[in-house]
Design goal:
Blueprint lengths: L1 H23 L3 E6 L9 H8 L13 E5 L4 H11 L3 H14 L6 E3 L2 H10 L3 E6 L7 E6 L2
Parallel strand pairs: 2-3, 2-4
Antiparallel strand pairs: 1-4, 1-5
Helix pairs in contact: 2-3
Length: 145
């Protein structure tokens, strides 16, 4: 009985590690509409857009960033990679800008499907999704680690 229990525990740990590898290693990409002329952006350019430091794409043209929900693991990963900010730091950053009237955070949507739909239909919209969710309606302009 003890041997069976140990095998079961080992199997459960293996499944948990596999699930974490699937979720934790999800590669994020920053996307724009397939019709958008921008083909690449740097991490600094994306950070400037998402932190409200600029409202323009390189070469001109307004940009509208779209964010995942505050409790999204991909959002946490995105801001850690692009801006070096934790969720708490990001909330403090936006609280200060909102309070001083110097900015508003990006629009939040429920999930990656909503991000992709908005980006595909908006010539000046930018978002981020998992690389595996790319389709011909959008194109990746930055791949995050």
């Amino acid at each position: 009985m003890n041997h069976t229990k140990r095998i079961l525990q080992t199997g459960l740990v293996g499944v948990a590690l596999w699930l974490c590898a699937s979720v934790c290693d999800a590669q994020l990409v920053v996307i724009v509409s397939a019709k958008n002329p921008v083909s690449t952006l740097s991490e600094n350019q994306v950070a400037d857009i998402y932190l409200g430091r600029t409202s323009q794409l390189p070469g001109g043209g307004d940009v509208v960033p779209v964010d995942l929900a505050d409790d999204s693991a991909n959002r946490t990963e995105f801001y850690k990679d692009v801006a070096g900010k934790s969720p708490a730091q990001l909330r403090a950053y936006w609280s200060k800008l909102i309070f001083t009237g110097r900015g508003q955070p990006p629009r939040e949507v429920a999930d990656a499907t909503a991000v992709k739909k908005l980006v595909a239909n908006g010539a000046n919209t930018i978002g981020y999704i998992e690389k595996s969710e790319l389709d011909p309606s959008v194109k990746a302009v930055l791949t995050l680690h």
